[in-house]
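Below is how a single chain appears once it has passed through the pipeline. First comes the sequence as given, then the structure the pipeline wrote out for it. We keep one example in the README because the format questions we get most often are answered faster by looking than by reading.
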Amino acid sequence: MEYYRMQANYRTIFTEMLLAQSAAAGALADVAGRYAQLMGQAYQEALMTLATETRLKGGAAGSAHPVDDAGIPGASRPGLAHVCRSLAGLPRISMMEFLSRYDSLRGRRTMVRD
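Resulting structure:
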């Protein structure tokens, strides 16, 4: 009888490990998608700024404004700060997503009494 009880406990542990792995894979896919979306938005913003700057420089034979080598004039710094804040929040989102998926996979828990 003790052997069966022990076997059931190992089965429970194995099931929990599989559920945790499944939740982790789902959370990883979700966070990777969010990261790709954030990077796409940041690159699109940078390319739009570059295109605008190139169009302004190419339109006039001699540029009346001096070119600042330290950075791109008109670049959106608040946009960059927003991307950095979003990237800093990814670990928290990842953990919340994992716990949410794990909780929904486990479902209602039963209490085991000895």
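Residues 82 and 88 are 10 Å apart (CA to CA).

See the next section for the split statistics.
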